[in-house]
């Protein structure tokens, strides 16, 4: 190889080394960034699962009066009273007029119809 060729190859070798080093550095940054994203997604999934459990426990065992139960079923209070009078809708009597309905039991009743 002549001096001319060596002078042209030397910068190319240096450039190749620089590119290789840059590629390795980028791999490290990429792995670090992906690990951070994975950790964030894992934390978000855990928070969503906890929220879903909390909502299931709180929301489905909620007690409702007749007006709230009617609104939950998207019925007028009068229509709901007629349904309760003719159907076996689960209810809990506090007094003769103080009736409570469980959201969970209403859902189960609907699914069993």
Written overview of the protein:
The chain folds into two domains: 1-60; 63-111. The mean pLDDT is 82. It contains four helices and three strands, in the order αβααββα. Helix 2 (66-72) packs across helix 3 (77-86). The chain has helices spanning 3-60, 66-72, 77-86, 103-111, and strands at residues 63-64, 92-93, 99-102.
Concise account of the structure shown:
This protein is mostly helical. It folds into two domains: 1-60; 63-111.
Summed up, the domain count is 2
Briefly note the structural class of the backbone.
Answer: mainly alpha
End-to-end separation in angstroms reads 91 Å
Percent strand: 5-15%
Mean pLDDT: 82
Strand order of the largest sheet: 1-3-2
As a whole number of angstroms, the C-alpha radius of gyration is 34 Å
State the total count of DSSP E strands. 3
- What is the chain-wise order of helices and strands? HEHHEEH
Largest sheet features: 3 strands, antiparallel
Please tell me what the overall shape is: rod-shaped
Low-confidence stretches: none
Helix content: over 70%
Number of helices: 4
């Amino acid at each position: 190889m002549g001096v001319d060729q060596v002078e042209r190859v030397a910068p190319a070798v240096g450039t190749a080394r620089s590119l290789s080093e840059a590629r390795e550095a980028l791999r490290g940054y990429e792995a670090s960034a992906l690990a951070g994203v994975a950790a964030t997604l894992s934390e978000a999934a855990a928070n969503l699962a906890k929220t879903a459990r909390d909502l299931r426990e709180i929301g489905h065992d909620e007690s409702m009066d007749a007006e709230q139960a009617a609104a939950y079923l998207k019925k007028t209070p009068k229509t709901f009273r007629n349904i309760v009078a003719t159907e076996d809708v689960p209810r809990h009597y506090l007094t003769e007029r103080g009736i409570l309905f469980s959201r969970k039991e209403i859902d189960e009743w609907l699914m069993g119809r």
